[in-house]
Amino acid sequence: MAEGQKQNKPLLSQAPYRGRVQAQGDDIEKDGGYSCPWAQNVPVTDRDGLSFLAKIEEQCTKSQKAQRKQAFAKAKRFVKLASEQGGVRPEAQPRSFQDSKRTVSNARVDIEISFEKSS
């Protein structure tokens, strides 16, 4: 981009559609767990949401995936259902999903979605 030329896209920090998908729990040593954040100018599609979930699932070890098998399935179902129903409202956020057979008590998958209107 030439010097002095204005960028047409708003900065990601100003993008109205934001959120993140996370895998968290005591069995994940990475501070804050595995996270896939986004900030964009258009709503997230079901394809995007499923892709974000796949990215964090890929970061999990075999045992971490086992602790969250049902949680990932529930989160994927949530994304698909939200898409079929036309999206989710910010007040329905955040959502946490857990596996009933987990042995790590706080092992979970979280989905947070927000929309910030510009003034």
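Above is the first protein from milestone M3; the second protein from the same milestone is given next.
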Amino acid sequence: MPRYDEYDLPFSFAGSHEGQRELLGHLKNTCFSDKFSDMKVRLSNGEEINCHRVIVCARCQFFDNALKDNRFREGQTGVIDMPNDRPHAIKALLEFCYKGGYTVSSDLDLSDKLLFQVDVMNVAAIYKMETLENIPAGWVYSCLTNNWNAVIPILPDVYRILEHLDSPTRSKWSPYMLDTLLKGALDHIDPLIETETWEGLWNHARDFMEEMSRGMEEKWYRQDWHIDLAEKWLTKMLGAEALRVVQCPTRGCAIRKKGVIISGEPVWTCRSCQVKVRLD
């Protein structure tokens, strides 16, 4: 058998793929196991998850800070409470710490899978785990782009979470996701108006609806191919009295089209020649 010092490698690099696979297998098997567990994570539903500091604290700075030097109560009790996060999202975060990935139940329909992935994005951004955040981000973006029927039932929830993350210090993905969400919504006005999603948006995402209304006003003004849907949206959003058709009185105006007059605004301004029209 050759001696180890015959190789031009330091001892610390000795090993094999088989040995590494075996080690990773043991690490995965310790996930949520009480064997050798020296800390717990208490979820918002009261469930306690067995964890191991050497793994969880190494993977997530939040846990390391909470347990460091017994400075906080968690460091003395070994129990970290997560009262403000959805249980399935924290479970996915912890599973990622052990396995480098997480499980999404095959029993969930596409809408629930989307909400699950958005929740994981949320906790990953909150607890500064960029590698974890990148995993659901691609899936969420694809779903928002290609599977709008799955988005509609949970649009208010998806918007609230993404809007909460809309800050460069929180999530690099959120601005792109919100832009994609708005574009998708503008292309799917009819199902939004006709389903109970409207009530959810009205009650929980009013600012998103206002963004939608601005997009609809633009379509109305430009007489885009969605003009009928724009009229339908604005009529429901603002009331039938809000839509008042006005033509610019200026001869030769480059744009002699309809304008959208929001209820309560007594003056309309032509976007082309800036002529103001007072309304009675």
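Note on the second protein: Confidence is low (pLDDT under 50) at residues 1-7.
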